[in-house]
Amino acid sequence: MYSSALTTNNQMYSQPFCDASNCYYEAIQIDVAIDGLYAIASNSSIDTYASIYSNSFDPFNPSVNLISKNKGGCSFGGFRLAVNLLVNVKYILVVTRYDPGTTGLFSIIMSGPAKTNIKRITLSFNLPKFCPTADWNPSGTTFANQSTLGIYPTAFFIDMNNTVYAVNLEKQQILMWTNDSINANKIISANFSDSYSIFVTNNGDVYYDNGYLNGRVDKWISNTDTFVNVMNVNSSCFGLFVDINNTLYCSMSSKNKIVKRWLNDGEMNAKTVAGIGIYGFGSNQLANPKGIFVDVNFDLYVADFGNDRIQLFKSRESTGITIVGKGSSNNIISLDRPSAIVLDADKYLFIVDRDNHRIIRSGSNDIRCIIGCNGKGSQSHQISSPTSLSFDSYGNIFITDSGNDRIQKFDFLPNSCDTSSVVQSMYSSTLTAKSQRYNRYVYDTRNYYYEAVQIDVVTDGFYTIGSNSSIDTYGYLYNNSFDPFNPSVNLISKDSDGCTNRQFRLAVNLLVNVKYILVVATSDADGTGAFSIIVSGLTNTSIKRINTTSIVQSTYSSVLTDKHPTYSRIDCDLPNHYYEAIQINVNESRYYSLNFNSSINTYGYMYIDNFYPSAPSINLTRMVHNSFYKHQSKIKIVFQSTTTNILVVTTSSPNVTGTFSIIVSGVNNVTFERLSECL
Fold first, then answer.
1. pTM of the predicted structure, to 2 decimals
2. 2-120 has which fold?
């Protein structure tokens, strides 16, 4: 016996008893151990219809391979089939209803000379179901590194048994990790060139890209350890997918299209299903497509790499719908060259946003960053140029962190779905023109109002920190201390648009006895407005405003005249640029902001220890000029208290004079000393 239910989550088709195209159905594989006559009947409170096929079932052409069907062979609206079944033949029983769009429970009873194996035809990969509040540990662990994967790994897959597959391009190997092994315990040597994608079916067969030089997709047959060509292509496949109808798809990035081939016929050439082969932004066009995903309704999702968007092509439709990214109707998050798209059980999207170095997840009411939300890098909470993503059966996320030559695993946090005991703490304040100001990153030249808030927890655990405001807020979380002059130090997480309405959302593990500092800033320089912070977690949290290091400014003003010495600027030939050399003395080695303000177009050159006008490249550490915005510019620079810091101010054009001023901002006053003509 086999029992199941037709629900609104089942795929739909046009069943052979009527012309309706929206009948829910379930496909069930039947295998027999002995040849003979078998009876297949249903038991259900609903009217059930059945069709049985040999070898394969095509929902778009349900008469192909059909060997028997019945819609009333039993009482109470059940079906009954009497068929001869053979060993080593794959049979597919399709159960549906006569009335379109209806659902209900059913059971299948088989009678015959021997027991039969009855199983639902399932996907070969994991399709987890997550709650709306699901989150993942923002810090990943390295599953495999360059010593195993080689340089810039891309092709990756995890099957329903949590067997992991990856490709080592340099060694032309397909690597397998079985039975939770920490090392690859099976290696398949294959003849390919630059294989960018793989897909594994339920029987363990591995389809892999071999298109770059060899013009084909190949398959490694697991039962026989042999290789066969399964599709002819004339470019690499940056995405491979085999749907539940045994149709193979290839994303031909260089050809700007997606092609497919049904694996049950003898035709080796593929036909186009999306894109017209011309690079473009039209709804029927693609631009260097990468990853693809086909759902159970045969809808095709494409990571339209060059167009910074995700395209959905409904089954048998050649015109795409932009669902995320540039051109979408609800473009609340921007993508930069997305390279892969994966769906969960509820058809929510997981997007590999390659050149933003992050993973995006869509939910029922929002779309947000979940991994790599702190920018590009090689730390455990960062990724660099990711290319693909897979789930294991526990909902953990594995990412090919290609720029770091590794595969990273990010653990699903089950307690993120336990909202029954969630406690919320709130803090409200306002950014005003009297708030402290800083530059959001080291070399940012713009000033942003900010407020620093200390967060303390009494229980270790997972917490979310979100904002609620009418202004576009940014959130930065630090441990132990925050330095407004070097805002990258101690930074553990940041976000700008993780929630709707341009609000931030941080998902972090917080520990008792660790001081956390949340810095709330705005998207726009000089932006102000009211905001609230909501911290959700296991227990109440303490949230209080703190004062950070105050800014002290020191100013130096002077005038370049025709009495000043001249020299040949570092990138000029003639010694006809007036200059002034100024020594800047500091008491503490750290970052300082250096502002230039002038009525003329000035250049500034920073030197350590000595400046030689006859050899201006010696000891040079930094250059800045202010030609771009009203003769003003700003840089961040480290001044050392143990060295002589020399700033040489000169002009862009020769023989130019005029006033200038320098403002140095830091935690302490600095002193200026004008130097003589030659050192």
1. 0.70
2. Jelly Rolls (2.60.120)
